[in-house]
């Protein structure tokens, strides 16, 4: 089940794949982001025992292309930032949070990286809340790591 859908242009500096779960996960909790589709599955990001596990990532996602907030376990904000977007980043990304091996939450985000047209730099996120789509547009600033939320046009 897809939790939300994110669209962004190729070449965008970064995009955030959102996921929020229970606050105050214990320090030994494990968070894993995987890309299952298209195959083969790849480990995108792994966070365990209070720190990132860069050696656990697939080679495609090394070199600092992914990050999570340093206070992710305390806040429950397990969103993943993916940098230097490429067409090949398109796919379904699943995040799973576990403590003591027991799943605490899971979400799937569908990322669609579009070929750059030179005009639009907007990222559209479609969140589903109680089966009602909610549209949010994020303006992606290529020269900085800042994103601005904008209300959709009426």
From TrEMBL:
Q: Which GO terms describe its cellular component?
A: external side of plasma membrane
Taxonomy of the source species = Eukaryota, Metazoa, Chordata, Craniata, Vertebrata
What is the source species? Astatotilapia calliptera (Eastern happy)
InterPro entries in the record = Ig-like_dom (IPR007110), Ig-like_dom_sf (IPR036179), Ig-like_fold (IPR013783), Ig_sub (IPR003599), Ig_V-set (IPR013106), IgSF_BTN/MOG (IPR050504)
Protein name, per record: Ig-like domain-containing protein
Keyword list, A-Z = Immunoglobulin domain, Membrane
Q: Which GO terms describe its molecular function?
A: signaling receptor binding
Which stretches make up the Ig-like domain? 1-110
Keyword Phosphoprotein on entry: no
Q: What is its subcellular localisation?
A: Membrane
């Amino acid at each position: 089940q897809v939790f939300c859908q994110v669209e962004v242009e190729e070449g965008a500096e970064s995009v955030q794949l959102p996921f929020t779960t229970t606050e105050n996960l214990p320090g030994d909790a494990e968070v894993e982001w995987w890309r299952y589709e298209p195959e083969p599955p790849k480990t995108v990001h792994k966070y365990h025992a209070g720190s990132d596990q860069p050696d656990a990532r697939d080679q495609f996602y090394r070199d600092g292309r992914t990050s999570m907030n340093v206070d992710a376990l305390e806040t429950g904000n397990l969103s993943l930032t993916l940098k230097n977007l490429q067409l090949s980043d398109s796919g379904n990304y699943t995040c799973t949070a576990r403590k003591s091996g027991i799943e605490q939450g899971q979400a799937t985000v569908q990322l669609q990286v579009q070929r750059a047209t030179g005009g639009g730099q907007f990222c559209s996120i479609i969140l589903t809340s109680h089966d009602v789509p909610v549209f949010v547009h994020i303006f992606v600033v290529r020269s900085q790591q800042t994103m601005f939320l904008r209300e959709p046009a009426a």
